[in-house]
Amino acid sequence: MSMVTCMACGTPPLAKPASDPATAPAPTTFTTRAEAEAARIAAWSAYVAKERDARAAEVAAGVVSAGGKTMKFFHVTRGAKPERGHSLFISMHGGGGAPARVNDSQWE
Length: 108
Description:
By secondary structure, the protein is α+β, with helices and mostly antiparallel strands. It is 32% helix and 11% strand. Strands 1-2 form a two-stranded antiparallel sheet. The termini are far apart.
């Protein structure tokens, strides 16, 4: 059987997957594509849960901070959810050193 290994580091596995993949150390070598896919899904799910919790207060306040910068945002959902989900439209305004009253008036 051929081994599917981590292309980044090529090290042997750290541990066998536990019953709760979100808390188990991630192996760096997988013997099957299914193991690699399960690890990818578990890693993504853990990341999404962490970020969702960390960003909940920002979403509630309508302000996002990253890299030392803060940006106000507004979102609205209109109409019933289509079968494949709503479309996303992003409109950015402001900047250019204008006063906050000018920038904010463009999206309020």
